[in-house]
Amino acid sequence: MRRMEPRWRGCCKNIPMDSKTKLKKAALSGGTMIGFVLVWQLICSFLRVDPWILPSPVRIAQAMWEDGPRLADQLGFTLRLALEGVALGVAFGVAAALLFHLIPGVRTALAPLVIVTQNVPLIALGPLLIVWFGFGLMPKLILLVLVCFFPVAWSMLAGLGQAEPHLREYMAMIGASRWEVLRRLELPASLPSFFTGLKLTAAYSVSAVIVAEWLGGSDGIGHYLVLKEKGFDTAGVFSAIVCIVALALVFYGAAVWLERLAIRWRPPRAEAKGGQEA
Amino acid sequence: MSGETENAKLELSGISMSYSRGGRRHPALDGVSLRVNEGEFVTLIGPSGSGKSTLFRLIGGVERPDAGSIRFDGRDATGRRGLISYMPQQPSLFPWLSVEANISSALESAGIGKKEAAEQASGWLRRIGLGDAAREYPHVLSGGMQQRVSFLRALLMPRGVMCLDEPFAALDALTRADMQAWLLGIWEAERRSVLFVTHSIEEALTLSDRIYVLSPAPARVLSELTVPFSRPRRADVWKEPEFVLLKERVLALLQKGAEERHAL
């Protein structure tokens, strides 16, 4: 018995946090990006590509620097709209997942409708929403919610149903109420799935915001993109693209960071896998 | 009989239950009657698939029997939930809660105040030598240590009867022997009413006050025997000559039950 006491201490070492491998991965993906930009620059410089067909990275950087204040303004607007859209979308997504999970009939009844919302093309839906709701914030938010709620709702719904059967059995045996099963078991168990959905939403939301801005209104990177395109300012178009990509990366990174904050335990599936490998 | 039922914490009488699978009825329990007195350690032993887990689900109120009644403290509680605490074969600790929170949150949901639940959990964890692990997640603990936490969770829940469903079956032999000695020590100090399920005759004889031997499915009570060894009991009670005799008797009962079934 005494021999066993310290056994739990050593077990922490089983979780490898190999920072060398991490560094190698970062260097590899970062190197690829730098290489890509370099090749691009070289092609533009040596093949003398017309800047209005394909501007070089240096030229794009110049354009961004010159139009910096305006770009920052537009980026701020887009960022706000994206945050509002994601927040609303996630709220709707979680609400839908809970509703579908707790009342099985609702799921059967509404699932086709939900699938329909995901299959109507944004470029068709956008103008319609503007016809119905005008050029204000409303049609944009509706469009964003429609895009953002789905990944969260669907992955969280799967997560809520996937709580470990033996934990469910334990809860049943000690006489836990439906509410307790939801609060103590299903909600925490669905967190990993929720974050899978959130990461998808974070990645999709930015391009959805761009479509929303592109459709109407007079602000945001999407609007900026339309202006530059109509003016044949290709460097300006690429400036907008750089901002969009950067914003999407930041959103995704934020979702990953939130996930790490929220999930510090080791999910049971990873545990099982680790056991098999060991 | 009436004299015996007076101090019965849990009493099952004439419990029958069958499942329908593939359009056919499969009888699982056939008129099982048993009782756990206040502060008594009672073990059910039987071959695998003899409906012991079904019996537990009925006691837990998760399912209702086809026939028979379940009484807690003399009152009918057939199909009622929330009267037992439970320790299954797998530790079933919540991976997102710390070791301490696993215990304290169970106590809270059983109606104990937040502060008292936390104090009880941390106090007991220190008492069993897991004080340093209280704030860790369960997965850092070995299987045996996780089962100790799971046992503590069942012990501290303010419920009349503890149901332990083959709690040591997944452990290696050495850890299992350790756990038996450990459980014996704690139980003899606390004297809770326990219903314990096991495959192991030695385990049953080492821990219990009384043993019910069950037949293969559909389960009946083949025999009820009182374990004569005194309390406090030593973990090496298996060295007693009488232990071997009792073991042979239980084994013979189980074998006879299996033969009768084949004969059918």
Automatic annotation (TrEMBL), chain B:
The protein's organism comes out as Cohnella zeiphila
The protein's name: ABC transporter ATP-binding protein
Q: Could you tell me which residue ranges the ABC transporter domain spans? A: 10-241
Q: Which GO MF terms does the UniProt record name?
A: ATP binding; ATP hydrolysis activity
Which CDD domains does the entry mention? ABC_NrtD_SsuB_transporters
One Pfam family in the UniProt entry: ABC_tran
Taxonomic superkingdom: Bacteria
Q: Which UniProt keywords apply?
A: ATP-binding, Nucleotide-binding, Transport
Name the lineage. Answer: Bacteria, Bacillati, Bacillota, Bacilli, Bacillales
In terms of SMART domains, this protein maps to: AAA
Q: Which InterPro entries match?
A: AAA+_ATPase, ABC_transporter-like_ATP-bd, ABC_transporter-like_CS, ABC_transporter_ATP-bind, P-loop_NTPase
